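One such given next:

>
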Amino acid sequence: MTALPHLRNPASTRPAERAPWQERRGPKPAITGIPRRRRNALRAVAAATALLPLLRPGGPGNTAPVDVFLIVAIVATAIWAVSGSQRLRLPYGAPVGVMMAAGAIAAMRGAYPGQGLIAIAQDLLLLLWCGAIAVVGRDPSSLRTIMRTWSIAAIVSASLTVVGSVGHITMLSGTTARTGARVAFTLGDANLAANYFMLSLFVVAAARYPGGRARRMASYLVLIVAVLLTGSNGAPLALAVGLAAAAAISLGRRRGLIYALAACAVGGLVVLGATSMVNLNQLETRAAHYGQLGKDSAGHSQESTSTRSTLLHETLNLYFHGPLLGRGPGSTKPTLHADQVPYV
């Protein structure tokens, strides 16, 4: 029975105690667009994350197709953050800002200001992309979506790379006459592809996705095979170091710091003992018997070490014999080429 108006409790008319049918009238107009914009920002960031390997075909200024999606994700995130009164976060903003300012000063005073400004623009894009992930990823469910998107995209990319390598499909493997049998997928560089697949393995482990131990183990296997097909020597080493660090951290959490330090010490001694017994000449000779990929990976270890040593020596000369304020970003290669050094 409906109560008379003059007998109603005034407190019952307060907004916090309105009847459910009154709450279903809809949100206030001021916040109507915020959920939609948040979804748009999340979708844009997830799409850009999935397309991170899309670096070919390349454009002017070292641009790539994925850059379009990065810009869209940054703009969508900024619109959501501003309209929803979200707190903008820019990780690494201060140190990267100082680096960009110093680089701009050196570039404008150097011989290659154009290359320097392009490099600074690239740094700015990556900094804003990092900020977009930080803003959208503050919500645990959104961060979970981003990490799962990365995992799925990396597994699919690794699978296509393996299929392209086995089936000799150049469009999928990304092999070229210059790189031989080393695959690069759509990243344009075998070492860059190796780093992407290697880092993706840790993302899959952190996201624990795909669910189920068997499917996740299969994903690890595909990513490891893709890393090996790139012929990179650094990525497998980084993968081993990363897995050792993860094992040490896990042991420290379960058993304590002393056990973790002891395991690291024992592991270090084992590695030192094993490396002292390895003969690089024999390793390269054996690797050459495993086809072109073996020649392009472990088979060129000494040559790769020699070229890196030469490049390091040449680069250090740029520091010690250059102007006080530096030469500016993007100037290393053209400077070495102008100086006619043995290796550019």
